[in-house]
Design brief:
- Helices cover 24% and strands 27% of the residues.
- With 426 residues, it is of the alpha+beta class.
- Among the domains are: 45 residues; 223 residues, no CATH class.
- The strands form four sheets. It has an eight-stranded antiparallel barrel. A three-stranded antiparallel beta sheet has the order 1-2-5, with no helix packed on it.
- Helix 6 packs across helix 7.
Length: 426
């Protein structure tokens, strides 16, 4: 356009024959040139603005971890079986496939060492059981028995009116598979309450509260428990029996919170006896939940009673036992307690196959077993039926879709008592 306007301005004087070489250009021509310059400047400005707008567009996806600091690890605590203390390392942010960010804290186990035991989030060195840190705040158990044994049913639920204790899987019903098994075994081994009552009479259990000077305080506490010998004055002499052999790990350890005298468990275990007479065979109940009231004796001794929350029959303890652990306990019970244990051709062979849970046939059946409980385990007419009865898992522990544990619910009560010096200690 500029070139065209310029050409016209040069040609016009010659075409008219009247203009001189130094004549001034016309106003129309100047206006046209100015208009062309303004249009060119406007176009360039628009292009520059568009280019500037294009450079400020940020297409980078936001970092999901930017808002997370990952500086609040879980509290350290004692490992379930009290052989180590669990602490957590500094957190890192991780993003899952859906783009959701979360803090992850790696757990690190600190072993309490040979003879050590973790109590109240701290490892304690115990050179021998004579040095175990028994406390003064003791309750002697008077009741520890599975729920679901009553013949009277609740009119609303249809369950036994003594059913116990918790809905462990969130389906709205109380989970107590072990109680149902004991109820089915009643014709063979008698009432569960009598069985566990005889166990407590033979091997009293003392509960030892650690970590609470005042029961009204809200705090983290530990409950430890020991088998003992009953004395004529009502006290209990703690025994090494029940401690894991060669360790200072007691038969009961439960962690939880005490709030206004109500104890609620977060985790724990109770290794209780199976078998008869002076059996040394234990099955471990892993405790997932518990709720009971702890009160002090009126005499100011600091001794404790364990009782129900509200109008329940007693305190509640809920958890599970694994089928494998139960079968192992029954095998040890038969080997230790029973006269006629000759399965598999040797007294050391298991009564029940630990993998298939099948009864191994008797090779020699010449003796007469005096115990009904042993007959149930060692008589081929009853053994497999017995095993099939106990092999009724209703809990999937590892989430793989296979049921591998039996839920359990126990009633528990205790009365104030005190401990003597441990047996065989100076």
């Amino acid at each position: 356009m500029k070139q065209l306007l310029l050409s016209l301005s040069l040609l016009t004087p010659f075409a008219l024959g009247t203009a001189a070489c130094d004549s001034a250009p016309s106003k129309a021509t100047d206006a046209a040139v100015a208009d062309g310059a303004d249009a060119d400047t406007t176009d360039a400005s628009a292009e520059d603005a568009a280019a500037e707008d294009a450079t400020v567009v940020d297409t980078t996806a936001p970092d999901p971890c930017e808002a997370l600091t990952c500086d609040a690890p879980p509290a350290s605590h004692c490992e379930l079986h009290r052989a180590s203390r669990i602490a957590y390392e500094d957190g890192t942010c991780a993003v899952d496939d859906a783009g959701t960010a979360a803090c992850e804290y790696a757990a690190a186990a600190e072993s309490c060492g040979e003879g050590g035991v973790c109590i109240l989030d701290a490892c304690e060195t115990v050179p021998s059981l004579c040095d175990f840190p028994f406390g003064p705040r003791i309750s002697g158990l008077t009741l520890f028995t599975p729920g679901g044994q009553s013949t009277v049913t609740d009119p609303e639920t249809g369950e036994p009116d003594d059913q116990c204790c918790f809905d462990l899987d969130g389906d709205g019903t109380i989970d107590n598979g072990l109680g149902a098994i004991f109820k089915q075994l009643e014709p063979f081994v008698g009432r569960a309450e009598d069985y566990f009552g005889a166990m407590l009479a033979r091997d009293p259990m003392a509960i030892d509260l650690h970590g609470a000077e005042s029961l009204a305080d809200a705090r983290e506490v530990d409950l430890l428990g020991y088998f003992g010998y009953p004395n004529s004055n009502g006290t209990i002499t703690p025994l090494s029996r029940g401690f894991q052999p060669g360790t200072s790990l007691p038969p009961i350890a439960i962690a939880g919170q005490l709030v206004d005298t109500v104890f609620r468990a977060t985790n724990g275990y109770y290794r209780f006896i199976v078998g008869i007479d002076d059996s040394r065979v234990f099955v471990e109940l892993v405790i997932a939940r518990a709720a009971f009231v702890i009160t002090e004796a009126d005499d100011g001794s600091g001794q404790l009673a364990v009782g129900p929350v509200g109008e329940d029959r007693g305190g509640r303890v809920g958890g599970w036992v694994t089928v494998a652990n139960l079968v192992a306990g029954l095998n040890e019970s038969a080997r230790y307690d029973c006269v006629c244990t000759v399965f598999g051709g040797t007294e050391d062979a298991p009564v029940i196959d630990p993998v298939t849970y099948e009864c191994i046939p008797i090779v020699d059946r010449t003796c007469d077993e005096p115990s009904d409980f042993c007959k149930l385990q060692t008589d081929p007419l009853y053994c497999q039926a017995f095993v099939n009865l106990i092999n009724q898992p209703d809990v999937d522990l590892d989430g793989d879709g296979t049921l591998d544990a039996i839920s359990a619910g126990f009633w528990i009560t205790g009365e104030p008592t005190s401990l003597n010096t441990m047996q065989n200690c100076p």
